[in-house]
Amino acid sequence: MCIYITLNHTVHPSQKHLYVRGALQTRTYLCVLQDQFYIKNPIFCLILFHFPALQVIGGSVTVVQGGTAILPCHVTGTDDDLIQITWQRRTREKPHNDNFLTILPREGVQFVNGGDDRFKYIGNFNQKNGTLQLADVTLKDEGSYTCIFTLFPSGNQKTEILLIVIETELLLPFCLHVLFATCTAAGSKPPAEVRWLTDALGDEVRTTTNSTQYDNDTTTTVSSLFGVPTREINGHQVQCVINSDAMSKEETLPFSIQVYFPPTEVNIRAISENSFECVTEANPSANFTWNGAKLQLLSLTSDLNGLYQCEASNAYGSKHGQLYVHVTSGEVSLDLAVQFVQIFLNFFVISELLCVVILFSLLSIPVKGNLNI
């Protein structure tokens, strides 16, 4: 008969099982085999028991401003009774440690010092899961969140979750830098210098230059031009300038930056008393759906009364402009201010897609200038 004993003292031989409550560390237990008189011929053996250690699991979270953050928190390795879950925070808005939410088995979620509907408890109390969801995250929410489990009999166990909030204003320009063009001076000896002249673009573009030297002592230098594909940068002229001691003069290669975008605001302007033109900005140029880009009223009668719509579209999207015509007694009344705009795909949507799928179709195929020396 093998008798299990407790951690700190020997159990009477009649107790055949050791019941463990809570989470214990790996320990060595003594098993004593004795005869029926408990005093003769004792036999000792060592038994190693391993119990999973109690652990509160959290983790750092990064979210874009305006997004939804999941603050993970759950406890493992214990059969202790869970009394309550407490959440604390220390954020930009609240720099001092602040109890803001408790979760009880019967009462459920209770806010402390005022509620915040952006927080939602998505964990499970019976499973010792205290995970929270925070919607519409702002910069003020950035900071440290502490999840505390009150257990019996082991007491409080906690972990800290760091929430990092990324500003969209900082994120978009960073992730939207795409390749406009590359300029290559290939096989030159000595190495060539490659630089860009960007005129008024200034900080709106950046360049990178890399050189590769070969066994025959020639060097290939590649310079790339990057920037954010905005409507304002479309059509700008830049020059790649290549210079080398082996050249009699500098070589200048011109490039025109092409950014494709859907029609912008659609405007309707009067050309004459009974002729109107639909105007917009787009790249490539927009197509118009009322008799070309112009609407001409052949006769001024009340039969023409109504709302006229001009649609401007290209491969990247479309927009509408509307014109209301009212004819009375041979006179025409026009309302050019009616501009019902329907956006199917605007430039900013395309820009955001660039962040996710690197939509290089917004740009012209990079022009590559090669100079072999």
UniProtKB/TrEMBL annotation:
Keyword presence, Coiled coil: no
Origin superkingdom: Eukaryota
Membrane association type: Single-pass membrane protein
Residue stretches spanning the membrane: 343-365
Cellular component GO terms held in the UniProt record: adherens junction; membrane
Localization (cell): Membrane
PANTHER family, per database record: NECTIN-1 ISOFORM X1-RELATED (PTHR23277:SF106), NECTIN-RELATED (PTHR23277)
Protein name per the record: Ig-like domain-containing protein
